[in-house]
Amino acid sequence: MTRVLAVFALVLAQSAWGAAACRFSSSVPDMGFGNYDLLTTAPTDTQLDVLVQCDRIGGPQNVTIDLGINQGTYGTSVANRRLGMAGGTDVLNYGLFRDAGRSANWGFTNGVDTGSLTLSVPNNGSATGTFRIFGRIPARQNVSPGSYSDRIQFTLSP
After folding, report:
1. Are 90 and 79 in contact (CB under 8 A)?
2. Which CATH number fits the domain that encloses residue 63?
């Protein structure tokens, strides 16, 4: 039996650091998992690239930014995220990870479980960087057919 998953919305935040201001360089697309087949033994994987841009007027050339992601509407922690069923009560467990092996949860505690990158930003100029987020829905979850989604918040910080 196949389950159809809706993509989930991402709430954006903006951060300024010293003489550099960083923001999402475009609207963040939804991360879609596609159809979920509860009979398959393989997890359902996807990935999403989030582009950020920093502009600088004076200050240090290298700008380090962190991207944090909260647990979402239905999750109880970053290690226990859940997609909620539209109009129903079922939930579908999923995870967001910082690595392709999907072993390091992506959270919102700077220096612990956030993603980090350093951009070299020219004076009176800008630079763009990419955070790659890896998603996974574990296999063999017994849920009802329907559309599942979650709303998570992304936060950029210096």
Report:
1. no
2. 2.60.40.1090
